[in-house]
Write a structure and sequence with these properties.
By secondary structure, this protein is an alpha/beta fold. It is built from 10 helices and 9 strands. The termini are far apart. The N terminus is likely disordered.
Length: 323
């Protein structure tokens, strides 16, 4: 085999040299790094980092989101042959994106996990590298918000979700994916007046001033209206986007712990994410992918596409043709 041919077949997840560029590898072989990006614990030269938090001990129903980061990475191997569609730039070629692997923690010391997540994310922020997180259940977003708010102050949040996660919980020691936003608002991490929840279709009596665009409104008024409204709410303020995969209808993403019918279609979510371009996005995550409840792999594929679009949103202001 010629040397140049051999070079073209090096697994990008492990190869040194230029970390930028599209991947031309077989989707069914090689390491499952996110979008075939380079695995590295070194942030030198990184424009964006991807990390997994495989924690699902805060679920109220079906567990399994601990397998989400691996499933999302595997599904993402279907994408990096071409630039992400609809964005007008090629983040894989213009930027160095490193997959930092998963955060390590002791599964038997659950009480330590929130502090470990907060410190883990703070490490990226201290290095000046924005981070995209693959969950894990939705509780992981709370310590992430603590790290982000410590740097940026009270945040705007765009939350794609079937559930508000605003149910009352004043016990600081409880770890619950259904109350993480309640605690985030109560702790002052999130400014509810400048935040919005999209796709909601479950009842919570007190939403603590959080603005909501429920699923039916998204269907009736359209994703263009919903995306523009969300952008208007957060524009000019440091923003975090958290995407619970159960924001999508179970027809599109059955592999999750608490599926609820009547949700967003994948094309609606894609349109809304792209319409958010230009917001001050300081961080993002996609959570609650539980692949074992979906034999088709569609949920992980959806999660990988969401993560890719979140990556594009985070890098949008820094693209080569940015004004």
């Amino acid at each position: 085999m010629a040397l140049e041919d051999a070079k073209s077949e090096i697994d990008r997840a492990f190869s040194g040299g230029d970390s930028r560029g599209l991947a031309r590898e077989s989707t069914y072989a090689g390491a499952t790094s996110f979008l075939r990006r380079h695995y590295s614990k070194d942030l030198t030269g990184a424009d964006l980092a991807v990390t997994g938090v495989p924690f699902d001990m805060g679920v109220t129903n079906r567990p399994g989101a601990r397998f989400g980061p691996r499933a999302i990475r595997e599904a993402s191997a279907l994408q990096p042959y071409d630039p992400p569609w609809g964005w007008g730039f090629d983040p894989l070629s213009e930027f160095s994106i490193f997959d930092q692997g998963d955060m390590a923690f002791d599964y038997a010391k659950v009480a330590e996990v929130p502090g470990r997540i907060e410190a883990h994310i703070a490490g990226f922020l201290e290095a000046g590298v924005p981070v995209l997180t693959l969950g894990g259940d939705h509780y992981v977003t709370l310590p992430i918000l603590r790290a982000q708010a410590a740097k940026h102050g009270s945040l705007s949040v765009i939350q794609f979700d079937a559930h508000s996660d605003l149910w009352p919980d004043d016990d600081p020691d409880r770890i619950d994916h259904g109350t993480f936003m309640y605690k985030a608002v109560r702790e002052g991490l999130v400014d509810p007046a400048r935040s919005v929840q999209i796709g909601i279709r479950t009842v919570c009596d007190d939403v603590l001033g959080m603005q909501q665009i429920d699923a039916r409104t998204c269907h009736e008024r359209g994703p263009d209206w919903a995306g523009a409204r969300a952008r208007e709410i957060v524009l000019g303020h440091p923003t975090y986007v958290t995407f619970d995969i159960d924001a999508l209808d179970p027809a599109f993403a059955p592999g999750t712990g608490t599926p609820v019918w009547g949700g967003l279609a994948s094309w609606q979510a894609a349109a809304m994410l792209r319409d958010l371009a230009g917001i001050d996005l300081v961080g993002a995550d996609v959570v609650e992918v539980a692949p074992h409840y979906d034999a088709t792999g569609a949920t992980a594929i959806a999660g990988a596409h969401v993560a890719t679009d979140l990556m594009c949103l985070m890098l949008w202001p820094r693209r080569e043709d940015a004004e």
